[in-house]
Specification:
The longest helix has 23 residues. This protein is α/β, with parallel strands linked by helices. It folds into 2 domains: 145 residues, Rossmann fold (3-Layer(aba) Sandwich), CATH 3.40.50.1970; 179 residues, Dehydroquinate synthase-like - alpha domain (Dehydroquinate synthase-like, alpha domain). It is globular. It has a 6-stranded parallel sheet with strand order 1-8-5-4-2-3, with helices on both faces. Strands 6-7 form a two-stranded antiparallel sheet. Helix 5 runs parallel beside helix 9 and helix 9 crosses helix 13. It contains 13 helices and 8 strands. The structure holds nicotinamide-adenine-dinucleotide. The site of nicotinamide-adenine-dinucleotide has 28 residues, from helix 4, strand 6, helix 5 and helix 9.
Length: 349
């Protein structure tokens, strides 16, 4: 029996398919946007060149190169550029950093975004923005930053290096897994998250054998889309809050931090939601969710410990004592294991 729940669907249009970069200009036209500012990560310069040509006289300006975590000075420069060229819309091509910069502009100037993701971070499906100033990251939720159209083209991620791919998949899997136990979790989000996890795990296994396989890359983008949707509706829980603290305070890389922390938080939290745990285990092809995630990441060659990312044991202990959202002993247990990279066997409380 399905119990009572409340689920919010976010508006947005998804155009999915290898080669769909060619549809970006038509989507801009459909939105009625006349002067576009293109924001592109350096690795997507070629794609941005294509879009620039296809936009014809709707192209108004371009920002090449983005910085992780949207530093305020970078956001201010982008807003100034949007003002200067009188942009009435944005195209973001790249990973979470490029989409994050476009969101920072959309937040203050209320401009529609067409997002073209080239990693699996999933930001394109969420109304969440973030900006970093003086070493601390502020995040918020605002429908103004939710991209109006998302164009997924697997060709653009065909040459994403395997290490970046695997870490980005860990980020996307974190969205799927945590979405089943947050206070806002519901059956619709759970189904989205389980299907996302299935596509991500299958895509990662395949892409390790053949990094440019377009079906595997498509599977990963599909999983990223579902993971982002799950994050948007379920919000964040213990796992994301811990990663946020670690990333913000000790400047740890975003996606890799997820890979080290997720199996350890899963070991603690998944037993609270046995039905969802079983569904995710089936999706990943494992008989224990926490160890299944750990092994998936380790097999893909990503670090499953925080010490490799540069965190000291004292800092892990300090982070546990600083964290406010859960009992100290529980957080210490998670971070001690995540720091050392202990395989999460014996997943009971
Ligand atoms: P990123 O955008 O910095 O990209 C990671 C690296 O991959 C970069 O060096 C980039 O140049 C490279 N790259 C990207 N696409 C490539 C391609 N196709 N080929 C080769 N190289 C490529 O990092 P990310 O992990 O995508 O995103 C992380 C950021 O996104 C963080 O700031 C995080 O907070 C944010 N984020 C936000 C949300 C949200 O809902 N707001 C969700 C997830 C992540």
């Amino acid at each position: 029996m399905t119990t009572n729940f409340v689920h919010t669907f976010f508006p947005g249009r998804v155009v999915f398919g290898a080669g769909s970069l060619d549809q970006v200009a038509a989507e801009v036209e459909l939105l009625g946007v006349r002067r576009v500012l293109v924001v592109a990560t350096n690795s997507a310069r070629d794609a941005a060149d294509v879009v620039e040509v296809e936009l014809k006289d709707r192209f108004a300006g371009r920002i090449d190169g983005v910085t992780q975590h949207v530093p305020t000075e970078v956001a201010e420069n982008a807003r100034a550029k949007a003002r200067e060229i009188d942009a009435d819309g944005l195209i973001a091509i790249g990973g979470g950093s490029a989409i994050g910069l476009a969101k920072a502009v959309a937040l203050t100037r209320d401009l529609p975004i067409v997002a073209v993701p080239t990693t699996y971070a999933g930001s394109e499906m969420t109304p969440v923005w973030g900006e970093t100033s003086g070493g601390s990251k502020t995040t918020g939720t605002d429908l103004k930053v939710l991209p109006r159209v998302v164009v997924y083209d697997a060709v653009l991620s065909q040459h994403l290096p395997l290490k970046v791919t695997a870490a980005s998949v860990a980020n996307a899997l974190a969205h799927c897994v945590e979405a089943v136990w947050t206070p806002k979790a519901d059956p619709i989000t759970e189904t989205t998250a389980v299907e996302g996890a299935r596509a991500l795990a299958a895509g990662l296994r395949k892409v390790r054998q053949d990094p440019t396989d377009i079906d595997a890359r498509s599977n990963l983008l599909y999983g990223a889309c579902l993971g982002g949707s799950a994050l948007a509706t379920a919000g964040t829980g213990l796992h994301h809050k811990l990663c946020h603290l670690l990333g913000g305070t000790y400047n740890l890389p975003h996606a890799e931090t997820h890979a080290a922390v997720l199996p350890q938080v899963t070991r603690i939290k998944a037993p609270d939601v046995p039905q969802a745990k079983a569904r995710l285990e089936a999706a990943l092809g494992t008989n224990d969710l926490a160890t299944g995630l750990y092994d998936l990441f380790a097999d893909a060659g990503i670090s499953t410990n925080l010490k490799d990312l540069g965190l000291t044991e004292d800092q892990a202990d300090e982070a546990a004592r600083t964290f406010q959202g859960a009992p100290l002993q529980l957080v210490k247990d998670i971070l001690t294991r995540a720091w050392a990279g202990t395989r999460p066997e014996g997943a009971t409380r």
